[in-house]
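Hi F.,

I've been meaning to write this up properly since the lab meeting, where we talked about keeping a consistent format for the predictions we share between groups. The idea is simple: the sequence comes first, exactly as it goes in, then the structure tokens exactly as they come out, then a line or two of notes. No screenshots and no reformatting. I'm using this chain as the first example so we have something concrete to point to.
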Amino acid sequence: MNCAHVAVFHAPGQPLELREVELPQLAPGEVLVRVRLTTLCGSDLHTFAGSRSTPTPTILGHEIIGDVIAIGEGAEKRDLAGRMIRPGDRVTWSIAAHCGDCFYCTHGLPQKCEALFKYGHERLTDERPLSGGLADHCLLTRSTPVLILPETLPDEVACLANCATATAAGAVRVGELGAGDNVVVFGAGMLGLTMAAIARSRGAAEVIVVDVAPQRLRQALRFGATACLEFSSDAPAIVEVVRARTAERGADLVLEASGSPEAMEAALKVARIGGRIVFVGAVRPTRPIPLDAEQLVRRVLTLRGLHNYTPDDLAAAVTFLNGAPEYPFAEFVSRPFPLAEAEAAFAAAQHGPALRTAVRP
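Output, unedited:
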């Protein structure tokens, strides 16, 4: 087989183009992967619908796992755990390939590398014709962090590591989650539920999940939530419930995963004095939110933002998913659509009940 099959995205409202692409010659250290499964992330849906821009034409999809079929000669390729990568290995990889040498790479922000390459977000070129998950092959650059997956981790769960789980792991890292912390999570989508499960698995005392959808809140109880609150614009009522469950102090850590301006405003109010707040969900344009600088100072709050994640977060995500079978993540993934039905997969993702819609080439 000398060609790959891909589904190319040109613009919102235009059909995906199914085409064949010649398999590239591999440079030293590059890895050619046969895609096993891709799940459609929220950013894929936003791009497809036109509420988020990306260079086009492109191949969408970055929550990907696959089998190594070839490695470019002339350089060893090891995974994040130091293991030699060989053909036949089932792997996942970071959404972002980074150089390792620029200012941001050497200051703890490799996901903001000055030479960043993001899978599922790049314009197609002759040099990089296979850069997303809606294809039967993907070409990994030499600088891509790769991780060999445990045999015990099912495909549909492993796929989630590459974006939602790694981002959730990054959020609790920058939020300095500690055992015994009281945590509030705004948003009970894939990201928020994963944050709740990680927080609870790491010893959080309270994990209070807030969302507008009662059915998602019911799911949250299966993913580590100790209490659920239906979101209301009445922020004082939310603050009152949180304080009642936290010895009248408020939350040690607040994780905002919805991207809703109203939720972000409420998140600032439920943190205790000295609390930490991490915004993760605001990945597309929203209205500005007010920030009371005096309250930020007087309450000694720490406010952080997180976009994407580091390679260590990806490793932590795989470790978590493989060690937490009590959380039924597989139930969130739809039956797989074939690549030829990628359009139908997007329709199902936009209107169906699954938190992740899968495509299996």
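Notes:
The chain has a mean pLDDT of 95.
Residues 311-323 form the longest helix (13 residues).

If this format works for you, I'll send the rest the same way.

G.
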